[in-house]
Structure formats: C-alpha cells, structure tokens
Amino acid sequence: MNETDKIIEVRHLSKSFSGKKVLEDINLYIRRGEFLTLLGPSGCGKTTMLRMIAGFLQPDEGSILLEGKELAGTPPHLRPLNTVFQRYALFPHLDVYDNIAFGLKLKKTPQEEIDKRVRRVLKLVSMSDYEDRDVETLSGGQQQRIAIARAIVNQPKVLLLDEPLAALDLKMRKDMQIELKEMHKKLGITFIYVTHDQEEALTLSDTIVVMNEGRIQQIGTPTDIYNEPVNSFVADFIGESNILNGTMIRDRKVSFIGHDFDCVDEGFGEDNPVDVVVRPEDIYFVDKEKAQFSAKVKSCVFKGVHYEMFVDTDTGNELMIQDYDAFQPGTEVWLRIEPDDIQVMRKERTQNTFDGEVIDNETVRFLGGDFKCDASAYSSGDKVKVEVPFDKVDLLDNEEEGESYGNVIFILYKGDHYHLTIATPEGEKVWVDTNDIWDKNDQVGIHILPEDIHLRKAEGNE
Amino acid sequence: MMSAKKIFAKAYIWLLLIVLYSPIVFIAVCSFTEAKSLGNWTGFSLNLYKSLFTGGMQNSNALLSAVYNTLLIALIASIVATILGTIAAIGIFNLKGRKKQAIQFLNNIPMINPDIITGVSLFLLFVFLHISQGYLTVILAHITFCTPYVVLNVLPKLSQMNPNVYEAALDLGATPFQALRKVMIPALRPGMISGFILSFTMSLDDFAVTFFTRGTIGLDTLSTFIYTDARKGGLTPELRPLMTIIFLIILAVLLFINIRSSKNTQESK
Amino acid sequence: MSKRSSWALPYFIFLVLFVVMPLVLIVVYSFQDASGHFTFSNITKFFTDKDSLSTFALSIEVAIENTALCILIGYPAAYILADKSLNRSAVTVVLFIMPMWVNALMRTLATAELFNMAGITLGKGTLLFGMCYDYLPFMIYPIYNVLNKMDKSYAEAAEDLGAKPFEVFTKVTFPLSMPGVASGILMVFMPTVSTFAISEFLTNNKIKLFGTIIQENINNSMWNYGAALSLIMLIIIAITTVLQGKDNSEAAAGGAI
After folding, report:
1. Do residue B103 and residue C227 have CB atoms under 8 angstroms apart?
2. pLDDT (tens digit, 9 = 90+) per residue, B168-199?
3. Does C25 sit within 8 Å of B124, measured CB to CB?
4. B62-234, superfamily in CATH?
5. Which site among C3, C7, C205 would you substitute to test the B interface, given the most B Cβ atoms closer than 10 Å to its Cβ?
6. What is the pLDDT of residues C188-200, one digit of tens each?
7. Which chain B residue lies closest to C211 (C-alpha atoms)?
8. Closest-CA residue in chain C for A160?
9. What strand order describes the sheet that includes A283-285?
10. Of A190, A253, A339, B15, which is most buried with the most CB atoms under 10 A?
C-alpha cells in the first residue's frame, strides 16, 4: 500500500497519568477515507489516544504523524482536524447558525461563503429549518447533529468522534448510527470513532482497533474480529461467545469439552493448551447420527430474534446456544460444531509467573506479600521466578487472611469454571481458576499453599 | 521555568492579597502595643490582651457585654431561623404554581433588600405596633433576614431527596412525626447545617439592621459598639486584640475545613 | 403530600408580618406628615432639596464606579483563581473570601487609619478605594464559581474549531461567565448605594451617601422623610431587579448548562 494512503500514523505512543500507564507502545496507521473505530472498555486508553490526536493531551513518548508530518508541538487550533465531543459542547450563548459558523468566522471566511457552507451542512444533517434556534431547545439527537455539522463545515482532514452517541437512547442511537455511516460515505472524510459499544463498532466501522489496558489487542475488519478473535479478551468483548480451555492435538485437530473436533487452525504445535472460541449461533441441533456430543438443556429464554439456551454437555461443561428453535429445559439434545466455526487462540499464559525474592529458606516475597514455600535450594536475596498454577490460587473473603490481597478486575466464564483476573494495589496481576462466584471489584485475600509454589532461578534478562 | 503569564498572574494575586490583608495585619500588629490610638506604637506589650479578658481598662466591660450580646443574639436567631426555615422549606417544596411563586418571592425580599431598608422598615413596624425595642426586636429582626438563607439551603436538599422515603416510612409503621424525625431530617441535615452556619455568620456580622432595631436601652452588638465607639473618636484599644483573635479563629476554622475536604478527595481517589 | 404544603403557612404569616407589613409601612409613612395626614410633601421635598438630590446622584455615581472597579480588578483575579494552570491552591481562594468575615467596620477603620498614616487625605478617592476593598470578595466569589464550574469542553470545542487562546476567552469563556458577573453586580451595586457607616469613616464625614441621610433622618425622628427616602431606594432596587431579571434570563439561557 502507498505510504500516501496512510493519513495518520501512530508510532510507539505511550502516556502515563500519575504513574499509571494509560497507553503503552501503541503503533497503528489509519487509511485515508476509512471509518476506524477505537473500541474497548472504560479505561482502556481509547479516549486518551483520541485526545492526543486532537491535541488536548501531549504524549509522553512516541509520535503522531498527519500525512507524514509530526503533530506534536502543534496546538489544537492549528490542527486540520475537528472533534465531535461526547456531550456536544454546543455554545449556549450562540444560536445554531452561529455555532456552526464559529470556526469559519475565525478563519475570516467571507459571509457569503459562510452562508453557503452552513446551509449545505445543515441540509446534510437534515436540520435545515433550525438556523435561528436556541441550542438549548434542541433534543439530544438534534444537538448531536449540530455538533457534527459544526465540525464538518470546516472541512477537516480527519473527523474525531468521542463516543458521540453515548448520551442518546437506544432507538435514537440506532438511527444516528445509520446516518453517521451515510454521512461518512457522502463526505469521504476519514472518521476516527471512539466507543465502548461493540455492536456499534461492528455496525459502523471499516476497521476496528480493540484496546484493553492501554494496549492494542487486535486490529481488523468487523468480520475478522468477530469470526477470528486472537485472544480471549477480544473473544469475550465482541459478541457473545463460549470461551473454553482446549488442547491442540495437532494441526487441524483440537480437543475441548471432553471431545475431539476437526478444525481449520494450524501452527499451534502438538498437545499444547489453547483457548477455544465458539459463537452461540454456531452450535447446531442435529439428529443423533450426525452429532458430535450430547447435552441437557438447562434454560431457554426467548430473545425476540432467537432463543437463548444454556446446556450442560455430557462432560460437564456449560455452553450458550442461540437458535431459532426452542428446546425446553430438561430435554436431551444432540449437538454439532463445524470445523470453520471453531476459533483456536493462543493462550496468553498457562500459569501465573511472578518476580520474587527469597527471604529465607522457607519464605519468598512476591505479589507484595511473604509466602511460605520450600526455598531451601536458594539463598536469601536471590531473585527468582515464582510459578503458580491458575487453579492453585485461593481467594478469600477476608483480605487480611491471605498473604496478599487485591480486587477482581475481570471475569471470564470458561464453560466449567471461572477464569478471574485479580489486580494487587501495586498493579500486579494474578489469574485464578475457580468455581466460586465473585463479582467485579470484590476485594479478596490471596492465599497459596507452599506445595503449589514453584521456584526457578531468574535468567539474566528475564 | 514558569511562563511569563504565570508569573504575572501570581504577582497579581499576591499584590491583591497584600492590599486585602494590610488593614487586618495592621490591626493585628497594633494589638501588641498599649497605645491608646490605632497607629501609635509605644513598645511591645500584651497588656491589651490581658485587659480584654480581665476587664481592666475603661470600656472593656461594655465591649465584653457587646460580644456576649452578639453571640447570644446570633445563636438564638440562627436556631429559630433554622427550625422555621426548614419547616417552611418542606411546605414550600410541596406547594405548586402561584402560591409557590408568591412565597418564594416574599422569601427573596430580605435577601435582595439592603440591610438599611430591612432595618428602617422593621423600625417602623415596631414603632407602629408599639413594641419597645431591645433584645426581642433585634432577635426578631435577625430571624427575618436569616430565615431566607435557611430556606434556600434546605430546598435543594429536598429536591435531591427521594420523594418516596417519607411514604415508605409511613408504610413501615412510622407516625408522621417519627417519619419526619428518622427519615427526612437526616436527609435535610446538610442543608440545615449550612443554613445555620450562614445565618450565624450573617447575624454576627450585621450592623445596619441591629442599629435600627435596638432601641435606646443601650443594647450593643459588636458592630454597633464599634460604630458608636469610633464616632466618639478613639477606638477602644481592646478591640484590636479582639479582632485579631476573631480573625485567627476564622483562619484556623477555614484552613481546617479545607484541609479536611482535600484529604477526603485524596482518599477517595 | 398535599398536607405538607400547609407547613408553609406559619412562615407565610411570619413573612407577611415581618417583611410585607414593614415595607407597606415605609410606603404609608412616606405619604404622611408628622401628624398622620396624607401628603406628597416628603416626595416633593426630595426632588426639590438640592442636598438630597445631589447626595442621591453621588451615591449612584459612587455605586457605579465601585461596581466597575470591582469588576475590573475582580474579574482577572477570579479568572486566575479558576484557571487550573495558573492556580491549583484551594487555600488561595479561601484567602480571598476570609476578609469578608472580619467585621467590615473594623476593616474600614483600619483602612482609614492607614490612609492617615500615609498622609493621604480622606475624600472621594479613599472612599472609592475603601468601598472596592470591602466589596471585592463579593465580586470575585460568584465569578470564580461560574468559571470554576464551567464545562471545560466549551473551551476545548472553541480551540478545536480554530480559536486562538485569546479568542477562546473573548468569544466563549467571557460571554458564558456573564451570570457570575451579574451576580457580583447584584451583590455590590445596591449595598454600595445604601451604606452609611463606611462612607462616614472613609471620608471623615466629608462625603455623605444616600444611606447616611436616611439614617440621619430616622435618628432625628424625621421618620416620614426617612421613609420617603427609603421608598426611593426601594424603587431603585425594584428597577435593578427587573433589569437583572431580564438580563438573568438571557444570561441564564447563555450560561446555564
């Protein structure tokens, strides 16, 4: 692809607030004319990145290039970009016409030209009769359109939209999504859109950048991201999915929920643990002869377009299935999953690995606490790598009772157990497999038995 | 390191603060000397502080009784204003339309009127009703200009309060009075407290209203005392340590509140 | 629920007795002479007495000048205090408010004494200075509040649309801060017109303001004339309130988000 097709390039972008890293080594490029969405949960850094492109924040490291030129050092009012703010920020002391004309008047555009362009853009957002109106008399959806009009009348090279539809009700939001997409097609401007709503991202975008905790998880088209998520975060964030532990037997054969399945993925090695994703709509009810496994229906709920059912497989795993037919709870059913519908993902980790320091021959310090274990092979002060299996970390209701403590930041259901992410006050992460039910933000104590703590020497550059 | 804009801004602020505080600092400095008139320096001395508390020099009895009156009147007026204002706010909150507008308009009048008008009008009222002027009239006058502030502080708390809590309490078996006490008052308390503090402050500071409603029995609050004193030419020296002490108390209270509230925001981060 | 609206009744009666009646009495007394007969003489006395008229005019003039001075000095101060890049200290803001709590008369006397010591003769200049000094915190605080609470995204939107920092202020921040300025004017203008003690002290009684002549008349048992003068002042208040009301609704539409 031509270098000139890249309108914005982000290189090694990093940003911290009060010591906490909000963006870490972000690299991406945006093609001229495309609709690109930054998608992620709150706090993932997407708004921070948008504001840096707009110029309201300065990066700590890295650079942002617009058409090959570095943007740092250019203040917002000189950047050929315009922003649509989340809560519109329409000037209350000016009417609709003056709001839209604001940027043009600053550039000393002649009055005739202003008139022409303002009227044209009002037509584009279907608000032609509203010129003289007071902005406070407009509804949320109308204010949103004026905010968009105010931005695009300046013919920016790139339009930045910061969760513009977040404050609207569902119906309004869906209507505006369609309008935005049409506007994008008509105008041909590059749109950079920020949202936490994955459905919105899938509807609107040419390209989606999925972000979490300051890092890019995956970049791709909506179909790519939906059908082939690269890790369990993306799989869980986008759409509904069944995420399960599996083992790659060999190329194109994977084992999960206690059965072997043909699949289309290769290159994961032999007998390696992997994560498997199957979308609920991709599990089919079939006759016994064609089935790969059986299950018993636990619940069946009508969702309007389809039925949502939870089933327990013959091997004790829970699966979510969406189908146009209903099967009543208690029924035994026969199921099949096609190879194309099985997405195999690399596990990001297979066990917990911490940095630790040996205190004495039966104590090691890691995770901000002192744990008892067999450290007789080491001397006091040695730096070690501490390995603990996911299912050997105990979580306690009482924070004080464990050797360490933290709070639950992410819960992933894996069919027969929960895979939790716990963060300690210092920001270290612990991953735990458990059947106990915890809520996000629960404060928990962390306890590990000595026999489950494995130490190995830390290599030089680990 | 700092931009020119920042330097200029800080200088401006500091200059203003210096001008703002010089008279106060001046009073404080002069409280440490025994000179009779403000501005003379006859050497460092703590005698004024002593005589303020022990009633040594001439006028300090009158001064202390003025201080006492000021505090007493402020306390009584604020308490009554808080009770009256809270009940009124509950009533107003439940009114609608014209009646609500009317009473809110009347409530605003004492706040809009300059204190001299409030003072003169109440003076004429007491004359007209043949009420002899003294403690009673001053306290009534203070209640008049304090209550609107209580109403204004309690009304927002009423709108923030869940409208169904009173009914919920009744539903669970409380009598109306119990419902009021156990459920509404706690919700309104922050507004009542800020209304009380505001009333107390306005009453302490008042001059004109007290001036016109105190009659001729020699009732003085601190403000009227200072006024008559200054007109006689020659400020009672003990006023200087008194003002200094008052100022330091206010300073301490405000800094304490500020440090406490900034600690709270720090902890909640 | 509707039963509780009757709780407003006691206060309503209180207000009628202590707010409405006194004001009615001012009107009544204004149109009476010493023996209780109806007369316009008090009103005509005001309009024909050279002293009253000139004092009145002077008071309005001083009030306007003082208000203007307070805005001129106070707005930059409020702006600096509210701008996070220039001031991060809540204590500084408190420092500006604290002088309000030290007795106004006392501060005025100290100011007068400082002028004496500096050899500056007391007169109109010192009066204006002293007034501004007394009322400055009342102008700074409402402007500071509005600026502080203003949604930052207005300034960002203006910048995003191409406004240079100075233009952001003139075209967006300043217009949207008008409600604060209006509040400040309300808290400074009328009180200035009606002060009496302060002007005595700051000008050694050389200059009399409107409040002073009201006070003198009441004290000398010239209640009727004093009431008439108070009535004049009430009319001024009514006029400014109505103007404020109109201004406020425009400013509220302009600034209240």
Report:
1. no
2. 887 878 788 888 888 888 888 888 998 998 89
3. yes
4. MetI-like (1.10.3720.10)
5. C7
6. 888 888 888 888 8
7. B116
8. C160
9. A283-285, A332-337, A293-302, A307-313, A318-323
10. A190
